[in-house]
Amino acid sequence: MAKKPQTVWICQECGYESPKYMGRCICGAWNSFVEEKVLPAPQEDTRRRTAGRAAGRSSRPIPLKSVTSADRGRIPTAIRELDRVLGGGLVKGSLTLISGEPGIGKSTLIIQAAAEIARSFGTVLYVSGEESEEQIKMRADRVCSGIPDSLLVMSETNIDNVLTVAEDIKPVFLIVDSIQTMYTDQLDSAPGSVSQVRACVGILMKIGKTNDIPIFIVAHVTKSGDLAGPKIVEHLVDCVLSFSGERDHEIRILRAFKNRFGTTSEIGAFRMENEGMIGIEDLSGTFLENPDEQQEGSVVTAVYEGSRPVLLEIQALTAQANVGFPRRTAVGIDYQRLNMILAVLEKRAGIPVSTEDVYANVVGGLKPDSTSVDLGVALAVYSSVRRIKPAAGMIAIGEVGLTGGLRSVQNADKIAVEAAKLGYTKILMPKKNAERIKNVPKGCKIVGLKDIIDAVEAFKY
Fold first, then answer.
1. In this structure, are residues 372 and 304 in contact, taking their beta carbons and an 8 Å threshold?
2. Does residue 183 sit in helix, strand or coil?
């Protein structure tokens, strides 16, 4: 049976709701009430995810200008690299989904953040469906500098019990590790199934949005590295973070693929130590171990990640292909992009690579997604083919086009400033970028290049 609409009077100035008409509203406005028909929305409706002012109230629109919660407060985690990626800290009522390979350090980073927030802001609830309380305590003893009394831990897989506890203790931060282990009694399917994951995320959304609790949800990944579970989960949450890194490297990179309250171009860098995840402030210095040593097939390039330039080293090795087709191997570089750069070198610059095995690697395990490293890759391959060492104190940035021309890249001026700080004296970049730099850093020479041929000539001297 359809629900019967109710008649209410709404103030157009402040949104105050009254069962009868009032000449003057409590906000002081006169004759501001209008009649509206609304449907009742019972609080026990478990499928409803509406949060904030309308939670448990009638379904009706309100004036946007009357909404006072536009500027939501943030909770800093005291971990600068994590706050950088989040956009300044945790937004109250937000849902953050974090994923990564097993053993990459997700739980370590989260327990460190939980301890810092509990120490500064109040009760934090850590819910684990994979580990016991004793296992979580062992990790916390190792990576946290003291465990505050307000950090609570709960080993539970029933999301309905988590809901009950959260409503009882009202935590300032909630962590669920992991969503694939959770289930609700409302469904008969097994934990980790599409329906269970979707339902559990919906319940967590209701908890967070209604009580202004920021929630961290840990998710598993598939063999291909994608998030396990339904794609709708990524649409429901406010922020999607990915923790990546190579097992033979100590550096871990945190990226945001979605962030409703910040940018998705920032990265956070961490080093795995015995005492936990340590943030890396000087990321360029980490990737450049021997900046004064020039080697054949090694060229320094740069990318601009979020709010900071990052200098890194590209290494290339070429060898005569003896059997069949030449081998192409790319580590940290897009494979298709490498093939395109090799074709440009062969066709536009006359560098013979069609009969060479080519191996290209980004030192340190970083996987830049910017085209500003194209010129560095091309010159590293050229250096290996011609057996020429790069000039001392040189870096190269620029996007390589199919015509052989060099296209401009973003934030080249800031990259130049960072390079000068680290002692580099010669910067190869596209001509348009060089023309736009008004204040050349002291002791640094900017070389503007038109195409790949100019780059090869400038590399020799």
1. yes
2. strand
- DSSP string covering 407-459, please? EP-TTHHHHHHHHHHTT--EEEEEHHHHHH--SPPTT-EEEEESBHHHHHHHH
Cis peptide bond prior to 189, omega within 30° of 0: no
Give per-residue pLDDT as tens, 312-350: 999 999 999 987 789 999 999 999 999 999 999 999 999
For residue 127, the surrounding DSSP H or E stretch is strand 124-128
62 burial (CB, 10 Å; 0-12 / 13-18 / 19+) is middle
- C-alpha to C-alpha distances, 57 to 17, 54, 61, nearest whole angstrom: 11, 5, 11
What are the tens digits of pLDDT across the range 353-412? 999 999 999 988 788 889 999 999 999 999 999 999 998 899 999 999 999 999 999 999
Q: Which whole-number Å values give the CA distances from 387 to 291, 312, 314, 330, in the listed order? A: 19, 21, 15, 20
Is the separation of the CB atoms in 302 and 418 below 8 Å? yes
Residues 6+ apart with CB under 8 A from 107: 131, 139, 177, 218
Q: What does the CA dihedral 89, 271, 366, 364 come to, rounded to 10 degrees?
A: 160
Amino acid residing at 407: R
Evaluate if residue 351 carries a pLDDT over 80.
yes
CA–CA distance, 364 with 351 (Å, rounded to integer): 28
